[in-house]
Write a structure and sequence with these properties.
The complex is a heterodimer. By secondary structure, chain A is α/β, with parallel strands linked by helices. Chain A has 12 helices and 10 strands. Chain A is globular and about 55 Å long. Chain B has a 9-stranded mixed beta sheet. Chains A and B meet through α2, α3, β3, α4 and β6 of A and α2, β3, α3, β8 and α9 of B.
């Protein structure tokens, strides 16, 4: 029997034992993706007292459309130096899904240690143009709706449904900026009142600039270990007791944008509600989405949300979801939480969502 | 703790240069529906969907799986998108199979596709990147010098590539789904075709295809019930392996890559195979340019290093009397929807051991290899499938 908490999902307990990230910055010109990753990988290995030879499996998440070329993951793998060759895979998704693939792979018992990493440089192109290419290529993409306008439609739908107000959005942003003051990796950190934020002009009605995520360049990495070996590496491994992800239709008009049924389903599968949640790291790039997702996750008011500042403080595409998992795990490592929830999202206005429950041993 | 898993449904499109009769959603659905029909299932029976394709720039859509969630019946379910370069079709099948082998799911639909006519793969492969040498010649230009080095090292006669090109196109004539159908194919015809990248003639290269491939992968209990319901046998997974090696590394042997050798050793070890030429009945191997047949014969251990061309030369890899037929479907040389090309290799291996390969069936095939590689030969994915449950 494992000394870790009994997992709700999976046959074999798997824990996050190390997490590292680069500070998120608006624009990193002096490092390409490989150079951005190398110090992060050195940190994540140091955190587990491991090196590449300890790895049984590697999985990463990234997207070609940020660099504007094919195979952005190919050179990134050279940041590790996989020699002799390793068992390795890649998802064209946020690296949170690379963590999911790794968790699945570790269930079978023939592998014990996995490295997961993700990276994204949003500064290389125009995200409003790039992300429009995620939409239905025949009917919607050619209209080039930008991500901020789509998020504004969602925010307005929430207001119209009486679920939140512009003051509520500003309160989320104010709290996120204040919390980010203690996060050395955050990009937007400030002590600023709700009233001051509401004095801003609209970006796209009803969204003001403070409700939008920053454009970020960053990389992140996690090491997963299966079984009690995790206790040899850290005192408080962050055990994955539940993990699930779900997708919704791409047809925005066919979805109720004021809620996230995929998040609610994934949360139920992962067992979020089965015990109290101390903290939640929610991958809500826009302020109103934090309110929406906290509700969809079924969190109680006692749960501390995004103590890192969340995506409103730093939002590197393709690594942002994995950072939520790493930040949540860090709260388990340092003992400030015994049960945490991490959420990741992908696709236009929260189309696809992943929910992970992390628990300490006690 | 690894659970047995089986391929119980297989589907593919009619591969063509331009499938302008369907959208991308229509293309993937054609393959997926065929796989579900074969499995005796509906979309509602599926637990999760795993989709793969090569670079998004090949169609000009970022993460097209998001838009395909509805078409593939994935709404409300987990959906994963794999991208591992040219090996992606194989890797995608492996990710799907691991979802079952791990016990997480029991019925997984896996799909891979490319609709090359929607964009231009040669352009997408040739976008200049800072601090990188531009690859303006596409994949053939990258591999031609490696092939020349193979010819020099092995002392192979010049016509081996021509023979592979003819053999695979003769095989394709027996496969209704194959893209290239060249009934008059001959050594002379290949030799007379234009030289693209010396020593590769036009007809020694893969075509650009639109196409999709799909499989339903199931747990042991589901496979048993569906076999009983449909009367069609399952193919059992006997081994699965992936390997990657660095791109920029002075110690790389690009002619006989370590990652390929390690991957083969791993997958054959799991399947209990010590002599692949003797113990396998056939193989579907990713051969996008003719000379990769002798090169991979050596890399995968079907013969000693330097002897691959002798197997090809002797006809050993031909469906017509060879002892170890390779690419009975016509292979990548006859159909190349890039993202799906690897999955087609995996799927064709499974068709063979189910005895359902039609005119290109290897009589009595019970064990087969599916193989895919990608990038500049850094990425490998393989599985061994059999008619019997693994011991």
């Amino acid at each position: 029997m494992s000394r870790g908490p009994a997992p709700k999902q999976g046959n074999r307990p798997v824990a996050i034992v190390s997490f590292a990230q680069s500070p998120s910055m608006r624009r990193i010109d002096q490092a390409n993706e490989v150079e951005l990753l190398m110090p992060v990988l050195a940190d994540v290995f140091a955190g587990a007292d491991m090196n590449k030879d300890d790895l049984d499996f590697i999985c990463s998440g990234s997207t070609d459309y940020l660099i504007g070329g094919p195979f952005s993951f190919v050179m990134a793998l050279d940041a590790i130096g996989v020699w002799p060759p390793k068992s390795e895979s890649h998802v064209e998704m946020d690296a949170a899904w690379a963590l999911y693939e790794s968790w699945v792979r570790l269930q079978e018992g023939d592998m014990d240690v996995a490295l997961v990493y993700g990276f994204g440089k949003s500064s290389l192109g125009d995200l409003n143009r790039i992300l429009a290419m995620q939409l239905d290529p025949y009917t919607m993409g050619p209209l080039w709706p930008d991500q901020v306008s789509l998020a504004a439609l969602q925010a307005q739908a929430m207001i119209d449904a009486g679920l939140a107000t512009e003051e509520d959005f500003a309160a989320v942003a104010s709290r996120a900026r204040r919390d980010a003051l203690t996060n050395p990796n955050a990009q937007v950190a400030k002590d600023i009142s709700v009233a001051d934020l509401l004095a801003e002009d609209y970006a796209v009605t009803p969204l003001r600039p403070h409700t939008l995520p920053p454009l970020s360049d960053a990389a992140a990495a996690v090491i997963l270990v299966a079984g009690d070996r995790a206790f040899d590496i850290v005192e408080n491994p962050a055990w994955i007791t539940g993990i699930d992800h779900r997708i919704e239709t791409h047809a925005l008009g066919a979805r109720d944008l004021t809620t996230s049924v995929s998040t609610t389903k994934a949360a139920a599968m992962a067992g979020v509600a089965e015990k109290p949640v101390d903290i939640a790291e929610i991958h809500a790039p826009f302020a109103h989405q934090e309110i929406l997702l906290a509700s969809a996750l079924g969190l109680e008011s006692s749960t501390v949300i995004n103590p890192s500042g969340g995506p409103l403080a730093a939002n590197p595409l393709m690594a942002g979801g994995l950072i939520r998992m790493g930040e949540a795990a860090s709260r388990i490592f340092d003992g400030t939480a015994s049960r945490a929830v991490a959420h990741a999202t992908s696709g236009p206005v929260l189309q696809q969502n992943l929910v992970c429950v992390l628990e300490g041993a006690s | 703790m690894s659970e047995r898993c089986a391929i119980i449904g297989i589907g593919q499109t009619y591969h063509k240069a331009k499938r302008d009769d369907v959208s991308i959603a229509g293309l993937v659905r054609e393959a997926a529906q065929a796989a579900l029909d074969d499995a005796g299932m509906a979309y509602a029976d599926i637990d999760a969907v795993v989709i793969g394709k090569a670079p998004d720039m090949f169609e000009g859509i970022m993460m097209p799986e998001l838009y395909l969630a509805g078409a593939l019946g994935a709404v409300g379910k987990p959906m994963l998108r794999v991208h591992t370069a040219g090996s992606v079709g194989g890797s995608t099948a492996l990710v799907a199979a691991h979802l079952v082998a791990s016990g997480v799911h029991k019925r997984v639909l896996t799909v891979a596709f490319e609709k090359q006519s929607e964009s231009d793969a040669m352009w997408a492969l040739s976008v200049p990147q800072p601090f990188s040498a531009p690859l303006l010649a596409g994949a053939g230009g990258y591999f031609a010098p490696i092939i020349r080095a193979y010819i020099r090292r092995s002392g192979a006669p010049d016509d081996i590539g021509l023979k592979v090109a003819v053999k695979d196109r003769l095989h394709a004539l027996k496969n209704p789904y194959a893209h290239l159908k060249l009934p008059d194919i001959s050594l002379e015809m290949v030799k007379e075709s234009i030289m693209l990248w010396d020593p590769l003639h036009y007809l020694e290269s893969c075509p650009s295809s639109d196409g999709a491939a799909a499989m339903v992968i199931a747990s042991e209990d589901v496979a048993a019930s569906q076999e009983a319901a449909t009367g069609r046998p399952a193919a059992w997974v006997h081994g699965m392996a992936m390997r990657s090696e660095p791109t920029m590394f002075a110690g790389r042997n690009q002619i006989n890559p370590q990652a390929g050798r390690d991957c083969a050793k791993d997958v054959f070890g799991q399947a209990g195979i010590t002599n692949p030429r003797a113990e396998l009945d056939c193989a579907e191997v990713y051969v996008p340019f003719s000379w990769y047949e002798p090169m991979w014969l050596e890399n995968l251990g079907f013969c000693d290093e330097g002897d691959g061309w002798k197997l090809t030369d002797s006809g050993a890899t031909s469906l017509d009397g060879g002892d170890i037929p390779w690419n009975c479907s016509g292979g990548v040389l006859s159909s190349n929807p890039i993202g799906a090309s690897g999955m087609l290799r995996f799927l064709e291996a499974a068709l063979q051991v189910r005895g359902m390969a039609g005119d290109h069936q290897v009589e009595g095939a019970r064990k087969a290899l599916g193989h895919a590689y990608g990038g500049g030969s850094q990425f490998f994915a393989m599985w061994v499938v059999g008619s019997d449950k693994p011991g």
